[in-house]
Amino acid sequence: MNWGAFASNLAASAGAALAVMLATFAIALRLGIHRIVDIAWGVAFAAVALVTWVLSAGYGDDLRRLLVLAATCLWGLRLALHIARRARGHGEDPRYAAMLARAPGSPARYALRKVYLLQGALVWLVSLPVQAASYLPGGPDPLMVLGLALWAAGLGFEAVGDHQLATFKSDPANRGRIMDRGLWAWTRHPNYFGDFLVWWGLYLTACTTWQTAALTLVSPLTMTGLLVWGSGKRLLEAHMADRPGYADYKARTSGFLPRPPRRTTLPRAAR
């Protein structure tokens, strides 16, 4: 692995993530809505992967580079399109509205620091395996095959869960009810569990050498922390806590790792 070229890539990928977030910030100010940063999250990963693919030409194995590019872009752009469709016709995300309401000083500058620049830094950090894998000279190996299998399982789990939830919400008869069917009967967060598999899978694509495995381990650990204890599961469950039927759903359904639902004697008000 050419460590000098990889170091240059780290700087270029940081610039790509920053460019996406700054462009999104400018659009958000014009529209007066910051929830579009959630769309930019997946786009920024795709941008980093594309820049890395271009810069790693002549350094990494071509097939490995192409597979990692395709896997990252497919995940990131699918997520961006899904969030864009879900947000269409809605106003500001309550999370951002609450955060900006208590912002000290200028809400715009606060949002730039606490949302856009922070998310850009996280994109760069989480994408380290994508960058490192693209500079590995060897072709696909067993760890990479396993990683892509995990990635595929995660993408499928996430996409199916998102589709099931969208179909459930589109039925007026389900208004006010808790989604507890399909994958949502096995875990309260199929989408977050899918992301978890995706990024541990992409991490394995960079584990050909112990150096890259050690260097990039921070990435899936960071993503796991975000999904379970950061802005994912923890915040969503706090928002859902007072919904009728949610306590019962929580009592019988795994919080993250899929498993068959428990039996419960609590009243199922949301059924």
Written account of the structure:
The longest helix is centred in the N-terminal third of the chain and has 29 residues, at 3-31. This protein is mainly alpha-helical. The chain starts with a helix and ends in a 19-residue tail after the last helix. It has helices spanning 3-31, 37-55, 62-87, 94-101, 107-126, 128-133, 142-170, 190-204, 210-216, 218-228, 233-240, 246-252.
In brief:
It comes from Streptomyces goshikiensis. The chain has 271 residues and is mostly helical.
What topology emerges from the helices and strands here?
Elements: H1 3-31, H2 37-55, H3 62-87, H4 94-101, H5 107-126, H6 128-133, H7 142-170, H8 190-204, H9 210-216, H10 218-228, H11 233-240, H12 246-252
Helix pairs in contact: 1-2, 1-5, 2-3, 2-5, 3-7, 4-5, 7-8, 8-10
| First-last Cα distance | 56 Å
Q: Please tally the helical runs, counting DSSP H or I stretches of 4 or more residues.
A: 12
H/E element string? HHHHHHHHHHHH
Rounded mean pLDDT score: 91
What is the number of independent domains? 2
The count of β-strands is 0
Q: Please state the structural category.
A: mainly alpha
Unreliable sequence segments: 266-271
- Tell me the major beta sheet: none
Shape: globular
Helical residues, percent: 55-70%
Strand content: under 5%
Query: Based on the structure, what is the oligomeric state of the protein chains?
Result: single chain
Radius of gyration: 20 Å
